[in-house]
Input
Amino acid sequence: MTETTEFRSVLLNPQEVLKLWPQIEPDIEKALAHSILELTAFYICKQALSGHIHIWLTLDANNKIVCTTTTRFLNYPNDKKTLQIITCTAKDRKWTEFFEQHKSVEDFARQSGCSSIQVWGRKGWQRQLKKLTSSVGSQYKTLYYVYNMEI
Output
């Protein structure tokens, strides 16, 4: 028997970040444990409260949080702007179950003037990210384990 669940993504405003922080901090901490520890959950929270980092929640049909994603803009001197996915956590589910939610992030990036989305991650992300294609037909490409997708 296959269970089908609808997912939706929401971008939190600073007040919602503050309200939900006790719920989402453990997931962000867990994701950061796989990094080189250049960022902390406290830093991410402060940056989200000031609007410099975005926190996204993917919710199931029962409004249960199944994924917490953090993003930020990277601006380069050549007027190139990209949206960096900092962390992405899947809670009790496979991340691939809600790949369609990537479109929400892609639309946000495009509307914000970005020409690409980047994921800075470990080598293991390569297997998952190769399954995604943007609305313009691009896929993530590995750049020093920085994955980039033109949008």
About this structure: The radius of gyration is 15 Å.
